[in-house]
Amino acid sequence: xxxxxxxxxxxxxxxxxxxxxxxxxxxxxxxxxxxxxxxxxxxxxxxxxxxxxxxxxxxxxxxxxxxxxxxxxxxxxxxxxxxxxxxxxxxxxxxxxxxxxxxxxxxxxxxxxxxxxxxxxxxxxxxxxxxxxxxxxxxxxxxxxxxxxxxxxxxxxxxxxxxxxxxxxxxxxxxxxxxxxxxxxxxxxxxxxxxxxxxxxxxxxxxxxxxxxxxxxxxxxxxxxxxxxxxxxxxxxxxxxxxxxxxxxx
Length: 250
Description:
- By secondary structure, the chain is α+β, with helices and mostly antiparallel strands.
- It has 10 helices and 8 strands.
- It has helices at residues 2-13, 27-33, 47-56, 116-129, 139-143, 154-161, 166-172, 175-183, 221-225, 234-237, and strands at 39-42, 62-66, 84-88, 92-96, 106-111, 191-196, 206-211, 229-232.
- The strands form 2 sheets. It has a 6-stranded antiparallel β-sheet. Strands 6-7 form a two-stranded antiparallel sheet.
- Strand 3 (84-88) and strand 4 form a beta hairpin.
């Protein structure tokens, strides 16, 4: 009974409630710009997306990891190569084509100077987790999103996303991607701890240590806010000249 109710809730929360925002770049520019290892943020339009955007006070409600054509993610029914890996509420961790978000408002967040070995590690991690399903046994994890704007104080909103068991959080938020980057020791928004220096010549000096935050506390906007991810705008990356624009007369 609980499993049936949970699946019904998942279907309800996955239903669109509004049209996607207009994309801020052309499809051709997005395809030409995105690279393996990039995180693609998405402004979703489902019921659960509305709640996540409210709780995180952000435009972005979803994140997917781009791995490219050579990642071995197979093809969809139309023959398009799967290039993205994401955690979906109903389907679990799955591979989809980039075209799935062709008409969506998106943003590319690029880890700086990511090495080829690390991209391969991200790919292996993602391939190992394909097919992992959302844990639908915990109804609390789903029911919290029935109110698109739950009356939760600002300081507790991020914590609300991490309620319940780990698997549902991994499927709803961006914890799956956060864990992948933690595997290669690439920072997103780590805690920085000031410690006394070991240098006897400088007793007043301090050194900074980085502490990994628990993956369940990461949300899509963290990749946007991270000082270690570069924001890539396809329109600019492909060459933008404001002088070439044709303006209509007032």
